[in-house]
Amino acid sequence: MDNGIPLPGEFGERARDILAGRVQPVPARDAATVVILREGPQVYLLRRKATMAFAAGAYVFPGGSVDPRDTDHSVAWAGPSPKEWGEVFHAEEKTARGLVCAAVRETFEESGVLLAGPGPDTVVADTTGDDWEADRIALIDRSLAFADFLDRRGLVLRSDLLKPWAHWITPEVEHKRFDTRFFVAALPEGQRTRDVGGEADKVVWQRPAEAIELAHKGEIFLMPPTYRTLAELSGHDDVESILAAEREIVTIMPRAVERDGKVWLTT
């Protein structure tokens, strides 16, 4: 993407308006994305429905916007503190708390994988029963708060099962924007993902290099942050190597530039 992606038509005109100060960009909402890993290494990808307003048809990792209740101090917590996460992601403590909670909540909502356990050294072994499914649906429709979900089941969020990976902000030219922190996490032993529907119409486990190859062939669509993340992961031979990787979190926001009468999106 370093050479730029052309922005024709409406996006090009919107970019010109933003560059000229005639249009103000939409504020970016805080969001979290989690790359679930299993040996291979493979990653869990969802294909967003073609009817979705954002990233329609794209293969993405589980994730979504921070719910205001994700910042609730009553969320039972084990592992690095919100303050420590804030230092990693260069964010305020409240924001960091919401990001980590959103990461765990959205992962459960979109894959059935729950990074939580009865104590700081344990993790839930199975989340496939009807009662778990009822809670998952209640979290999605926001009739159940994440803090209440954990409390009712006697669970604590395991922030130590997450590893920070990246920070992407949607370009200003987009009508819907997110300020997204990327995490990686290993699939907990005993748990398994499932096709839970919702915003996705297909789910797959894929080796990162294979996903990139399919994108090059035009068989799947990957957004730049997903593509870049997969490219980075493809350099590792196993999950342990990924989780041990040293990462400096640098904010990336592709920007529109005009060159020779044409508008390009570049990093």
From TrEMBL:
PROSITE patterns: NUDIX (PS51462)
Keywords, sorted A to Z: Hydrolase, Magnesium, Manganese, Metal-binding
Record has Hydrolase as a keyword: yes
Domain annotation Nudix hydrolase: ranges: 27-228
GO molecular function annotations of the record: hydrolase activity
Record has Endoplasmic reticulum as a keyword: no
Top-level taxon: Bacteria
Cofactor(s) needed for function: Mn(2+); Mg(2+)
Alphabetized PANTHER family for the sequence: ACYL-COENZYME A DIPHOSPHATASE NUDT19, TESTOSTERONE-REGULATED PROTEIN RP2
Protein name: NUDIX hydrolase
